[in-house]
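Hey L., structure's done. Input below.
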Amino acid sequence: MIKDSPNPPSDSTAFHTAAHRAINHYLTPSEKPQPSAEVDNLFTVREGLNVETLLINASEDLASVRALASHLAFEIDGNPRSVALGMYRMLEGVQLMVDKTLSLKDEPIHRSI
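Output:
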């Protein structure tokens, strides 16, 4: 006959020690790990990437979302269409700012004091 669980230790002291260790692991609040602030984030940005790489990827993502919003705006009518067109136009503005930032990467920074 096949058993689902292994036999408990024959020494009752070892059995009780293991049981208390298991119970304390799950019930002792001081031993529970504290969630970090990054737990809510699904994605992260890899360290060491340069600005140009980040901006190029942001630009490509914006272009994809713009295409989705544009397609959606022409598939629906009424107020939802206006909302989709508004999203498309805001995304287009952000895309222009990212593209302008990419074009400025070689220009020196002028600071006014």
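The radius of gyration is 28 Å. The helical segments are 12-27, 51-73, 79-103.

-- N.
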